[in-house]
């Protein structure tokens, strides 16, 4: 077996036993400090790793939430377009012009007389689909309004057929050719 350098120096008389013990104690203290500092360093490293992991998870959650919101918006737009496509009413290109506003500009669509009355009575609504204007029933327009009200351009209140009892002008009929 090999004898350590310290033992060889002691045997040859170059160092004293007190100095050897003191050197041994210092070496032990240094190794102990290194072990303690390693645990502190590892604790700091673990804390930093946990902190960065938590930040990454929060960021990922936020990104997933944004993606989900975008997907929901796309789904709503698809539902609205499907409702409009399935329920659009025909327009009469040679009929009566019905004027309405879209983004502070006056637009017009041509409809027949019955469709004009239905729009005025609130049975039909005008919606904007891509760059076109479509007529849809009021019930469908309400469903579209629940999803996104920006698509609805004209949705009049439904007029009751019965005349109010306290109306002083109930005996007078409104002319059919009166256009506002």
From TrEMBL:
InterPro entries: DUF2058
Region of interest (Disordered), ranges: 16-44
Biased composition (Basic and acidic residues): 16-29
Protein name: Nucleoprotein/polynucleotide-associated enzyme
Species this chain originates from: Methyloprofundus sedimenti
